[in-house]
Amino acid sequence: MIRNLLVGAVGSLMALGASQTMAWSQPTHKWIVMDALAYMGSDRATPEEKRAYDFYVEAANGQAEVAADALGQACYDVDNFRDVHIGSWWAGGHWSAPVFGLAHSLVGYNAYHHFINMTRGEDVHGNAHGGYSYQNRTPNGSFGKGDVVDIDKLAAIYLWNQELSKRDFNTTEAHYRQGSYSDWNAHYRDFQNISWQPSANAGEYWLSEFYKQPSFQAIGYALHFLTDSAQPHHAYSTSANNHVGWENWVEDHYKRDQFADFTAVRAAVGKYNPRDSLNGLITQVAGVAYTHPEPLFAKDYETRKAAAQALIPEAIAATVAVLTKAVNCLNDECGL
After folding, report:
1. Is residue 293 part of a domain?
2. Which residues form the domain of 214?
């Protein structure tokens, strides 16, 4: 019976491989960052934001388009990381994705670090909010009609009783621990019981790498975890509940419906203080996403459009704050 379930799960995961990304789509990530930098170079920006804009443009030899592309591409690239492997000796090893072939090239277990669960408080690691957890997920259909195929359950069936590799526990997970507590035996032996580190910690790690050695890559990587947190499914800890459909829809309509409205961005920018910690900024924008559960249950155009018009400017505004914060810190004006 278990073998049949596993075979069925593998087949379903392969069928979903081409669309299952578990984040904003990669182009959406890139556009958010590029639009944030464009805002910082506009007449709407504050002097502090313009100083940060100048820093990034000068780092690209004075070419704003090159700076925007480099930052956006780095944010895009995080979904291609293969730094989380799950498996067991009896499964023949540890893998960075569910199966080989097409799905293996498109779906990565690194995505489990891209969530911050705003439905609950402190997690087993001592974080104020945890990351993805199968046990603490928002079940498919919680707000109404969910997905026909529940990707959370399929993943749990496929990965039942499988572990995070010790190598990744000592590297990726250790990097994303950020002062919290983890024990491999207690926390990472059985997938269905794992509470992953939250996106807030992952973002903090990459921002600290930027301070050590400033680069478009490091700050862009940090921004990926920030922008993911503005996506409601990531604040509700679910890979199901119309997750993929919503993200594909936003990608399709982002430019067509002009979700990067700078008037709306300007109204949101003041909410995000560059002197707050990145953890705080990620938690803040995730809190906004949590107030918009509509994408978890609604598929109609008007509801999705209203949600995107609210959330994309918030994501851009928070990105402006982090890009500004990073330059402030290089000038010994960091805050938290």
Report:
1. yes
2. 2-330
